[in-house]
Structures are given as structure tokens and as C-alpha cells.
Structure to design on (594 residues):
């Protein structure tokens, strides 16, 4: 057998159904044209009072409920100023929420339950488009999809962006969102911003709110703080982007073995402007994305509509989730591996959703305009269908319930990090099949940024998605391998965690990794000396007060802590705290058989 043992009938049966359902789900994605849009992440008991907010993934890392006394929905900068002024005068805590709330950590949470949520849901308009100057000014609640479309209307393009277009301009600025490139200024969205208008608390003479207009030329110190702000400086009202003339891209996916991947990763990004990788370590394969800029008059009308971001039939998603829950209960690693191979092979065979004309895929290269090729998320587009189909992670259905881990490893250390992961796979080839059920390890190029809380150096960003149990005290199959990878990256190679992803442990001491952190904190103190836009969570990750880790029984199972004793794992279920297998300094929850 390919994975080293002879599976039981139960394993084959589970693998068969998981494979069948996975393939059927992919076929469904191609044919489903409608989808119930996500609901507002803010819910209130009465009108806009007594409110809660959650993340699009359904639960924060610590599964807590974030509350506020009210939510406000400004529709203009003037209304935003009025809202911030009233809250500042009353000394109320404030945090900003967005249309879809895609950040995993508790960035949207206020302290206690008397604070104020300020939603940018209706701050989603174009303020000014200047085709001659190649700039576009928009409100901060505009989604990436809207931004791409508004730029295209005047023949312009944003060069780099995340692959999911359901994020907002303010959300991208708040967390340092990026695409993949070593070229130009790099792939971070905030490094293509020329001006930021922000509303922050003011003094009595200011009317308790102050509009700050920031740019690289007039206020470089404050501008570099505001480019990745975590929402602690105030509310971003408007953002001006420096865009480029519309161009086209030529994309081709190639699957190879990963024998020389360590070397290829160092040079591939210099050869292809929008290069990335999908690594399938348990299969020993890598999918190389050969993605280049071509002239706008090059023939081609391609479209990138990533298959997992399309709408999915809710019953299929529920059955698929149930299947993985069964595999976890039965410790059916073989079933996961068979299913992972089938799903990743099907994604590759269907070009991940690329089509040559918006309808069908006829062959590589796929050439299309930047606005049609850079990002996707069509599960957001549909009309209400009573949850018959949704985005796969919609918490109103039994759908994906996952961890989203992301960190940037310095490019000079990436080869060694890849070797460490390969060493783990050699110990047990089935160990990382669970990652491949969710696309594999996505690897994107990033560069250093002048933003004080931006990337510090050229790096590879590793995005890892994996199963999360419904019960916080239920351990996961091969969780020790994934925990070790996490700790190797963060502590052996000093990786920077993505501000909008990750579990609590990733942020322990993180602010010490940023050389410009003192400069950022000085701007924060100047803009909001009372800390009205700060929260317990932001104080913890910025090193101001407290620690993001939570130590209690079972805390390591959900990444709330790194285990230091067996009770932090699940000793009654055979999971004990043990050293790492490759990185001995790691402490992970390992299934120990007697």
C-alpha cells in the first residue's frame, strides 16, 4: 500500500465516500450559479443595541463571544466623525467591524459589553477616480472586488492583492493583506497606497474627533504607522491607491515532485512576477504557478474563479464535514490521504477554476485581464436561496470549521524550513494529508515594507488550513505534526504571523519581532492616548499589557497555549505533552499508545 499499511474495510469505505463526495462537491461548484450571501457578522437583540460580532469562520480562537452595547453604520465621513466624537466624549471603547469579518483573531472585539462597534458596511463608495494621475480614492468599507471593478472602469489595475475578494480596503490595511510577488514594491496592498484619511479621537477643541490626512510626503512617520494599523489608531475613512494601466496575465500551473523544491523556491519568484506554490508534502509534489504580466493587447479573455471560493450545495458540504469527523473519530489517516489525493488531483485537472473564456478551460496558458485574473469569491455573489448553497464555511450550515494559520518565513530560511517539514513527512507519510484536504500549503512571496507593522524582509508566506473539532477538548489526528510545524516557523525561524490569521500562541511576544514597533506605539499614544480604539487583545499582541496565551486544561489543543504539562493536551484520550520529533524545543500534544 502507498501509505505503508493495509487498510481495513472501514478505511476503504470511508475513503471511498470521502473521495466520492469531494469529487461531487467540485462538480457542484462548477454548476451552482446561486448562493445565499453571508449574513452580517454583527447581530443585535434590538435594533442596533445589545450586539455581538463574530468571524466568518464561526468562532474566534478562544471561542468567546464579543459584545458591545451598540453598533453604528455610518454612510459618510461626516457621520463617522460624529459617531467617533460622541463615543470619545463619553469615553466609550470602540472597534471597527467590516462587511464579512474575515480576520480570525479578536481584532473586532471591544472590552466588556458597553463599547461600540463601528461598521464600515455602508462606507463603500468611490470618492474620486483620476485616470490621468492613475489614482483611485475609495471609502474604507469597499470590498476588494468593488475596488478591482472600479479601477477597471477607468482602465486601471491594482497590481497585487489577496486571492479572496471578500475583504475590505480597511480590513486589508488593518492586517497587512497581500498577494504574491517579489517584484516592484512587493505584494502588500498597503504599499500601493498614497494617502489615508483617518478619524481618530480628538480633544475638546477638536470637537472630540479629528480627521487626519496622511501621506508619505507630508506625514511619513504617521503614514507608515497607519498602513498596517490593527485598528488601534482610529477608523480609516478613505484610502487613495496608486494604480497601473490595465494589463493582462498569462497563467500556467505545472505539477512536479518536490525533490528540488528547496532550491527552486529561492529563484522561482524572480522569474515569474506573480509566482506562487501549492505544496502537497505528503504526496511529495508541488504545483508551480507560472504567472506573468503580458501586454494588454495580447489575445485572451481568461477568468480566474477559484473552485473552493464558488458556492457549494449545503447538503454536500455537511456530508463532507461529517465524513471528516468520522475519519477523525476512527483515526482514519489512510482515508484522509486517499481523499486528499483525489481532491488535489481534481483541482489540478480543472486548473483550479481558471477558464480561457469565462466558461471552459481549453488549455494553458490562460490569458486574461488583471481584473479578471487576480482575485475571486463568487460564492458572495448569489441571490438568497434559503441556504441551499453557500460559501463552504458559512456558520449557518454544517460546513467547514477550520483553523487558518499563516506566517512569513524569511526567504533565506525557507529552504531549511522546507527540509524540516520533509523530515516530519519521512517520519510518517500520512501526517500531513489533512492539510491537503484543504488545498495544500499555499506559499506566496512577500517583501519588506516601510509600514511599521509590515513585513521585515523578503519572505515566503505559508498559508495552512486544517480541521478544527467542534468540541474544544477533542484532539485532532496528527495534531502534533501541525503544532510542530507552527512552532518551527515561529520560534526556530522567527516567522511573522499574519495579523488577520492564526491561533493565540502565534502572537506570544510577536511585537518584539518588529524593529519599528516603538515608533508605531508612539503614534498610537499620540492618536489615542486613552486607548479608546484599543482592546484587551490589541494590548496583548502589542506588548502593552497581558499575554495572548491562555493557560488552562486542554489549552494546547486549540493553540491557546503551548503545552508544558499533559493537562494542557488531552491525557484521558491519550494525548500527552511531548517534545517535537524534528525540532526538539517544540512542545506538542502527541497521541501516545501504551
Amino acid at each position: 500500500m502507498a501509505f505503508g499499511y493495509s487498510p481495513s474495510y472501514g478505511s476503504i469505505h470511508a475513503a471511498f465516500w470521502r473521495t466520492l463526495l469531494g469529487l461531487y462537491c467540485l462538480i457542484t461548484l462548477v454548476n451552482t450559479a446561486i448562493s445565499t450571501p453571508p449574513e452580517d457578522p454583527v447581530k443585535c437583540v434590538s435594533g442596533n443595541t445589545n450586539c455581538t460580532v463574530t468571524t466568518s469562520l464561526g468562532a474566534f480562537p478562544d471561542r468567546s463571544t464579543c459584545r458591545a452595547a451598540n453598533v453604528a453604520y455610518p454612510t459618510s465621513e461626516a457621520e463617522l466623525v460624529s459617531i467617533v466624537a460622541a463615543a470619545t466624549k463619553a469615553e466609550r471603547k470602540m472597534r471597527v467591524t467590516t462587511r464579512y469579518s474575515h480576520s480570525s483573531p479578536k481584532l473586532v472585539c471591544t472590552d466588556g459589553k458597553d463599547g461600540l462597534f463601528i461598521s464600515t458596511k455602508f462606507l463603500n463608495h468611490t470618492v474620486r477616480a483620476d485616470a490621468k494621475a492613475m489614482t483611485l480614492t475609495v471609502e474604507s468599507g469597499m470590498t476588494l472586488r468593488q475596488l478591482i471593478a472600479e479601477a477597471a472602469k477607468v482602465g486601471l489595475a491594482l497590481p497585487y492583492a489577496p486571492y479572496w475578494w471578500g475583504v475590505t480596503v480597511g480590513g486589508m490595511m488593518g492586517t497587512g493583506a497581500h498577494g504574491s510577488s517579489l517584484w516592484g514594491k512587493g505584494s502588500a496592498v498597503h504599499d500601493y497606497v498614497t494617502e489615508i484619511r483617518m478619524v481618530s479621537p480628538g480633544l475638546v477643541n477638536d470637537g472630540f474627533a479629528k480627521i487626519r490626512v496622511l501621506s508619505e510626503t507630508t506625514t511619513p512617520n504617521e503614514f507608515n504607522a497607519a498602513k498596517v494599523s490593527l485598528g488601534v489608531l482610529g477608523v480609516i475613512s478613505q484610502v487613495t491607491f496608486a494604480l497601473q494601466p490595465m494589463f493582462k496575465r498569462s497563467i500556467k500551473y505545472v505539477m512536479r515532485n518536490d525533490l528540488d523544491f528547496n532550491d527552486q523556491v529561492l529563484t522561482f519568484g524572480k522569474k515569474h512576477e506573480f509566482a506562487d506554490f501549492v505544496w502537497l508534502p505528503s504526496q511529495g509534489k508541488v504545483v508551480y504557478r507560472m504567472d506573468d504580466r503580458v501586454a494588454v493587447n495580447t489575445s485572451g479573455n481568461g477568468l480566474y474563479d477559484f473552485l473552493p471560493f464558488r458556492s457549494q450545495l449545503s447538503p454536500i458540504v455537511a456530508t463532507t464535514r461529517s465524513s471528516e469527523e468520522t475519519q477523525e473519530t476512527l483515526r482514519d489517516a489512510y482515508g484522509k490521504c486517499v481523499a486528499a489525493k483525489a481532491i488535489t488531483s481534481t483541482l489540478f485537472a480543472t486548473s483550479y477554476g481558471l477558464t480561457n473564456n469565462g466558461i471552459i478551460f481549453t488549455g494553458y496558458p490562460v490569458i486574461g485581464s488583471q481584473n479578471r485574473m487576480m482575485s475571486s469569491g463568487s460564492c458572495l455573489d448569489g441571490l438568497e436561496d434559503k441556504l441551499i448553497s453557500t460559501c463552504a464555511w458559512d456558520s449557518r450550515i454544517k460546513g467547514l470549521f477550520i483553523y487558518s494559520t499563516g506566517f512569513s518565513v524569511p526567504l533565506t530560511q525557507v529552504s531549511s524550513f522546507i527540509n524540516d517539514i520533509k523530515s516530519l513527512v519521512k517520519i510518517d507519510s500520512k501526517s500531513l494529508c489533512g492539510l491537503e484536504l484543504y488545498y495544500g500549503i499555499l506559499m506566496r512571496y512577500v517583501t519588506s515594507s516601510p509600514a511599521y507593522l509590515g513585513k521585515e524582509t523578503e519572505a515566503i508566506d505559508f498559508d495552512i488550513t486544517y480541521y478544527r473539532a467542534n468540541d474544544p477538548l477533542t484532539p485532532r489526528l496528527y495534531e502534533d505534526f501541525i503544532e510542530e510545524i507552527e512552532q518551527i516557523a515561529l520560534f526556530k525561524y522567527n516567522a511573522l504571523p499574519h495579523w488577520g490569521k492564526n491561533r493565540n500562541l502565534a502572537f506570544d511576544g510577536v511585537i518584539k519581532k518588529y524593529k519599528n514597533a516603538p515608533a508605531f506605539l508612539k503614534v498610537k499614544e499620540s492618536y489615542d492616548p486613552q486607548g479608546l480604539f484599543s482592546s484587551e487583545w490589541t494590548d496583548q499582541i502589542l506588548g502593552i499589557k497581558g499575554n495572548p496565551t491562555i493557560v488552562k486544561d486542554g489549552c494546547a489543543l486549540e493553540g491557546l497555549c503551548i503545552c508544558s504539562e499533559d493537562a494542557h493536551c488531552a491525557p484521558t484520550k491519550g494525548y500527552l505533552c511531548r517534545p517535537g520529533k524534528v525540532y526538539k524545543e517544540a512542545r506538542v500534544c502527541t497521541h501516545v499508545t501504551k
Notes: The chain has a mean pLDDT of 94. The radius of gyration is 23 Å. The first helix runs from residue 9 to 31. DSSP finds 14 helices and 26 strands in the chain.
